[in-house]
Amino acid sequence: MRPIRLIPLLQQASAQALADRYGLTLDPATLVVQRTSRDHTGDYTLVLFPLMKHRLGSPEAIGQTLGQDLLDRLPDTLAAFDLVKGFLNLTLTPAAWCRWLHFALAEPEAALRLDLGSGQKVMLEFPSPNTNKPLHLGHLRNLFLGDSLTRILTAAGFTTIRANLYNDKGIHICKSLLAWQREGCQTPEQSGLKGDHLAGKYYVRFDQLLREQIEQLKAQGLDEEQAKAQAPLQQEVQELYRRWEAGDPAVVEPWRQMNTWVYAGFEQTFRRLGLPPFDVNYYESETYLRGREIVEEGLAQGVFFRKPDGSVWIDLSDEKLDEKLVLRSDGTSVYITQDLATAELKYQQFGIDRSIYVIGNEQDYHMKVLIATLKRLGKPYAEGMYHLSYGMVDLPTGRMKSREGTVVDADDLLDEMTATAAAATAELGKTESLDAQSLESLHHSLGLGALKYFLLKVDPARRMVFNPEDSIDFKGHTGTFIQYTHARTAALLRKADEQGYRPQPVAAPEPLAGAELDLVRQLYHWPDALAEAVRDYSPAVVANYAYDLARAYSRFYTEAPVLKADTVAQRDFRLLLTALTRQHLATVLGLLGIEAPDRM
RNA sequence: GGCACCGUAGUUCAACGGAUAGAACGGAGGUUUCCGGAGCCUCAGAUACAGGUUCGAUUCCUGUCGGUGCUACCA
After folding, report:
1. Burial readout A34-67 (b: 16 or more C-beta within 10 A, e: otherwise)
2. How far apart are CA A106 and CA A226, in angstroms?
3. CB of A306 nearer than 7 A to strand B
4. Mean of all residue pLDDT scores within chain A
5. What is the DSSP letter of A130?
6. Would the pLDDT of A38 be above 90?
7. Is A486 helix (H, G, I), strand (E, B) or coil?
8. Model pTM?
9. In this predicted model, what pLDDT tens digit does every residue of A271-282 receive, in sequence order?
10. In percent, how much of chain A has pLDDT > 90?
């Protein structure tokens, strides 16, 4: 048995019915089938208005015949139809959704997954940090998106590869390095700082020192521009970068040392965030040379052109992307030069079908240019490249600015979240049986869960706001609420087990109404929700599904006693629903990278 | 200036072109002798503005206003 996606099933059946009755051939996917809105009877609704343009008759006439045709075609699935204006509301048979419930109980692994990918290889690149400062809130959105999307695609039958690209070369890296060397070359051990924080400290320090020099020069009568250009530190750092490019061991060695520390710091944070290791790490310091060769090839092909000063460009003005530099006049590479090489390397190493770049929307233009350029170069893999562009995480006052000290540090934020979770858990008082270690790991998973959910529930494309003042919530539409609901299902199942009751694939007592029915509907909707998340590359769809399920269960829980149900049939069925809710919540939270505790 | 993205309750978010625009937080009010009250139930509260396309527009198009980003021989 395979997971049943009801929306495509109903689209297919409707398309065939229309073909047979009216000789009308339509792509089933174009038929509008959606969940029936609350306040109307039915489970799924076929919207008939779009069919009007084919002049088959009135919506009422089509609806009546189509409704009957569907009932005849899917007798095991459809119980009734109800026509309201141009909406054909379809009600499923209890037998249909019981099949699904029983299947999910027996084979949750199979039932909660899909095979949309047929093993296609997808690489996801994230978070691709610079190696001169620690990770912040923006990286967290990136990391959680990339991680969650990898899990979602895997669950949908794709073979996924996690890739990280370190932006480890450039003048900004040299800034940290320079300040660090000037001020004593401390190791992380000596400073008591994680490697990434150490580098970050000196990046900030460089800026301070440079600022001071600029102010001095301005006091001597220079204007801002001149002061910037003439500041000794500015010249020093440029010189340092030149020596790095030239391979001077006196620069390369300490650079390597510092990066090693930074990577160790990042690794530590990744682990704390519950992220699996990356399958492959790329380093711009290793790919930029190959980029120049690609530029040479492009020149030979006539895709690029050389300006009199020797710089190399691509003209994308007919795609409204303007002219873009791909190689400097001195022959050194720019950002995009390296990206050309990395894109090729990924394809050569893994033979990927799709390459997803999880990168902020500030780089929309850059990514358009990159993909357009590779297409011009005739690279076959360009077609499979996709920029998953996500919005920045802003503060209520606007963008985070390191200069103003408003950057929300990833490690600090996680500490805070964990502490808050600990306080809330102690207050609830349900965790006396846990030892200190389990308790600590629980607080961690609650704090982290709240943070992940907060960042994932929003449509990736949207810019979102984080207000440090009123911290991330543990009540309402939160990961915590979903985890809490899971813990309640677990508690109930424990209690049932003590009394000798186990979830069984029983039939539904009829008729079902209210919260019970809503819960059932939410459960069998899962495969369609997963498919939607894959189509849109959106963990937010999964996050919102999880919330809706948790809410449906909470209402059910209040309204319908399980162990104290009136009849045995009711008790057994409600126990089944509880077991399935638990499975679904655990699986769905897992796709968001969030743990599902049994008590909290 | 050019290009791109975005304007939905006080605030943070939902709504493949479909039915009376859903939630959460905050506010007001209820709910615990009953399986876990981080819950459940009421109430008040929103599509920036003006046109257009459509049977139907928060959604698509045009314009206006407002916000953000990109537009570096930085990465």
Report:
1. eebeeeeebbbbbebeebeeeebeebeebbebbb
2. 73
3. no
4. 94
5. B
6. no
7. helix
8. 0.96
9. 999 999 999 999
10. 84
Burial class (CB in 10 A: 0-12, 13-18, 19+), A139: buried
Taking the stretch 407-436 of protein chain A, residues with Cβ within 7 Å of any atom in nucleic acid chain B are 421, 424-425, 428, 430
Q: How far is the CA of A157 from the C1' of B46 (A)?
A: 40
* Cross-strand pairs, A84: A87
Rounded percentage of chain A residues whose pLDDT exceeds 70: 100
Strand B and A564 CB separated by under 7 Å? yes
Give residue-wise pLDDT tens across range A145-195: 999 999 999 999 999 999 999 999 989 999 999 999 999 999 999 999 999
Instruction: Please give the average per-residue pLDDT across A29-47, as a whole number.
Output: 94
A6-92, CATH topology level: Gyrase A; domain 2 (3.30.1360)
- Homologous superfamily in CATH for domain A410-591: Isoleucyl-tRNA Synthetase; Domain 1 (1.10.730.10)
Which bases of strand B have any atom within 7 Å of the beta carbon of a protein residue?
3-7, 11-20, 23-26, 34-41, 55-56, 68-75
pLDDT band at A496 (very low <50, low <70, confident <90, very high): very high
Contact flag, residue A517 CB and nucleic strand B, below 7 A: no
Q: How many CA atoms lie within 13 A of A23 on its CB side?
A: 1
- The Å distance, CA of A31 to C1' of B21, is 23
Q: What is the domain partition of chain A in residue ranges?
A: 6-92, 170-278, 410-591
How many angstroms separate the Cα of A433 from the Cα of each of A12, A392, A428, A599, A600? 52, 42, 13, 10, 11
From the Cβ of A484, is strand B under 7 Å away?
A: yes
Which residue minimizes Cα–C1' distance to B38?
A475
User: Which A residues 572-591 have CB within 7 Å of strand B?
Assistant: none
Round and report the angstrom distance from CA (A39) to C1' (B41).
18
> How many angstroms separate the CA of A458 from the C1' of B62?
30
State ipTM: 0.96
Q: What does the pLDDT average to over A10-19?
A: 96
